[in-house]
Amino acid sequence: MAQRLTDLATSSAHLGVLDALAVTADATTSRVLVNNPLVRVVYFAFDTGELLTTHSSPRAVVVHLLDGAIRFTVDDTEHPMAPGDVLYLAPGAQHSLVADAPSRLSLVMIDPGAA
């Protein structure tokens, strides 16, 4: 199913997202909040032990841990994250993660070439 595009020229509000995105037992879930050629915002929820295997994005990425505890690896360097921590990933950076506790994070992908 294709993701609905968010109009680049129209402001939008996404409220109550954390209340609507509960951590599900033994699962990783996500919700796309904004999706256009310039920026994509996705919220993820991970149960303890869930992981994302190593991959990369052609876009720059900003990760903000909202709650929980995650070990986020970028280019072979592991970063234990606590709530409030932020990581910036350059385009093409290899990254993966493991949730050490039920966790939720915000991921923002930016494509400066689309502006």
SSE layout and pairing:
Elements: H1 17-20, E1 28-35, E2 39-46, E3 51-55, E4 60-67, E5 70-74, E6 77-81, E7 86-89, E8 95-99, E9 103-110
Helix content: under 10%
Side by side, the strands of the main sheet go 1-2-9-4-7
CATH topology of the domain at 32-107: Jelly Rolls
Indicate the overall shape: globular
Percent in strands: over 45%
| CATH class call of the domain at 32-107 | Mainly Beta
Number of strands: 9
For the record, what is the CATH homologous superfamily label of the domain at 32-107?
Jelly Rolls
Give an account of the 3D structure.
There is one protein chain. The chain has 115 residues and is mainly beta. It has a domain at 32-107: Jelly Rolls, CATH 2.60.120. The chain is 3% helix and 49% strand. The chain has 1 helix and 9 strands, in the order αβββββββββ. The strands form 2 sheets. The chain has a 5-stranded antiparallel sheet, with no helix packed on it. Strands 3-8-5-6 form a 4-stranded antiparallel sheet, with no helix packed on it. The longest helix is centred in the first third of the chain and has 4 residues, at 17-20. The radius of gyration is 14 Å and the shape is globular. The two termini are 26 Å apart. The model has no long low-confidence stretch (mean pLDDT 92).
